[in-house]
Specification:
With 399 residues, the chain is mainly beta. It has helices at 5-15, 125-128, 141-146, and strands at residues 25-30, 33-49, 65-79, 84-91, 96-105, 113-120, 150-160, 163-170, 183-195, 198-210, 215-216, 219-220, 232-233, 237-238, 240-254, 257-270, 276-288, 294-297, 300-303, 313-331, 338-358, 362-377, 382-386, 389-398. It has one domain (44-69, 136-398): Porin, CATH 2.40.160.10. The strands form 4 sheets. Strands 2-3-4-5-6-7-8-9-10-15-16-17-20-21-22-24 form a 16-stranded antiparallel β-barrel. Pfam families: Porin_O_P (PF07396).
Length: 399
């Protein structure tokens, strides 16, 4: 897809007027609404070291590398009139709408609100965290596979500084031909420890939705977003009815250190086959080498600006992912092996990385990911192990 050059040029020119201490452009006050303009540009490069599968086998460049403008997000936000907030977001790269909704804050308290439109559904700590401040270039395998993203719907939320409860009813994505299937989601968070420089966060979420076309497919890349091959894959699951996902969250913030973990358990109800179950988790840690502490608001962590803008903020990060898409067995004793159930495969991925935030608007990231997967192959007549790795780099500009 070719990006609209006029849209991106306008965004870049507007961003040049961003003062160093602010992250958005103030536009005007219209009809009692304070309007601001925000944006995010991300350019990625992936270099693959293949083992069995060619991770970018569909590439036209003939190399084991991929380069792509990942995001070109343009966002208008409004505060007011009164207790109303609104947002209209669009990704010019993906050609789809982002958050596009109205929110009413009861009594002016952002913790108690009613929201309508397209928004991220209440599930998954990593999914709800800001895209521009994700700890790693690729989200965790389980987040990409199981977490719900933006959908059209209605949500009600309430809470205080140390707890929150949000429920929603949703349908399809606002942009046609993307995610669909109506359902419900609920997320609750509690911080039993919340004091200056130290937070312990606990969270639970539940989502249940119609698979709509009665077909579902769960699969995952080896934590490299530009890879065209998935090493674990359930295949097309037909006669599916609904998918239910339960998520558990744990996060500990202490000064410059952030430790985070999530677990997902998913179950798919099927008409003519036994129900299909899958699961996974990740564990991660991030350390601000330059000493900046983390924030916490609305049940998600926040990343502050560098203490010394000229030298910037440095982070070291490490993560371990595990996903299991197997829910069946294979009889290898038969003349022709027979699979009972679904053997989508298992995969572990180690990722290490470094991030550098410079001043208020720039970030560079470098990640190294090592995958270890095993999946049954009928053509090979057994399980195939694949252990590729990749180097990933990102340049980011935001305002």
């Amino acid at each position: 897809m070719h990006l609209p050059r006029t849209v991106l040029t306008t965004a870049l020119l507007a961003a040049l007027y961003v003062p160093a201490a602010h992250a958005e452009v103030a536009i005007d006050v219209i009809a009692g609404s304070e309007i601001t303009f925000e944006g995010l540009l991300q350019a990625d490069g992936n270099w693959f070291h293949n083992d069995v599968a060619d991770l970018n086998g569909n590439s036209n460049n003939g190399n084991d590398s991929e380069f792509e403008l990942r995001r070109a997000e343009l966002i208008l936000k409004g505060k007011g009139p009164g207790n109303i907030d609104w947002v209209v977001g669009y990704d010019a790269k993906a050609d789809k709408f982002l958050d596009t909704n109205l929110r009413y804050k009861f009594g002016g308290n952002a913790a108690t609100f009613l929201q309508a439109g397209q928004f991220k559904q209440p599930n998954s700590l990593e999914e709800l965290s800001s895209t521009k401040n994700n700890d790693f270039i690729s989200k965790a395998t389980v987040t990409n596979t199981f977490a719900l993203g933006r959908r059209l719907g209605v949500a009600y939320g309430t809470g205080q500084d140390n707890w929150s409860l949000t429920g929603s009813a949703f349908g399809r994505e606002l942009t046609r031909n993307l995610a669909h299937g109506s359902g419900y989601a609920l997320r609750g968070t509690f911080a039993p420890l919340m004091e200056s420089g130290q937070v312990l966060h606990l969270g639970l979420s539940w989502a249940d939705y119609d698979t709509d076309a009665d077909t579902l497919r769960l699969r995952a890349r080896p934590n490299a977003d530009l890879a065209t091959v998935r090493l674990v894959d359930s295949g097309e699951l037909r006669d599916t009815d609904r998918m239910r996902t339960i998520g558990a969250e744990l996060m500990y913030l202490h000064g410059p250190l952030k430790l985070q973990a999530e677990y997902f358990d998913a179950s798919v109800k099927r008409y003519d086959h036994g129900d299909y179950s899958s699961s996974g988790y990740y564990l991660s840690g991030v350390w601000n080498l330059t000493g900046e502490s983390w924030g916490y608001k609305g049940g998600v962590p926040t990343t502050g600006l560098p203490s010394e803008p000229a030298s910037g903020q440095w982070q070291l990060a490490a993560r371990f992912d595990h996903i299991d898409l197997n829910d069946g067995s294979v009889n290898t004793a038969a003349a022709i092996p027979v699979v009972d159930g679904v053997l989508g495969g298992k995969m572990d991925v180690w990722t290490v990385g470094v991030n550098w935030y410079w001043r208020s608007n720039f970030r560079t990231s470098l990640n190294y990911a090592m995958a270890d997967s095993s999946k049954y192959s009928s053509s090979a007549g057994g399980f195939v192990d694949d252990k590729p790795s990749s180097v990933q780099a990102r340049l980011q500009f935001f305002w």
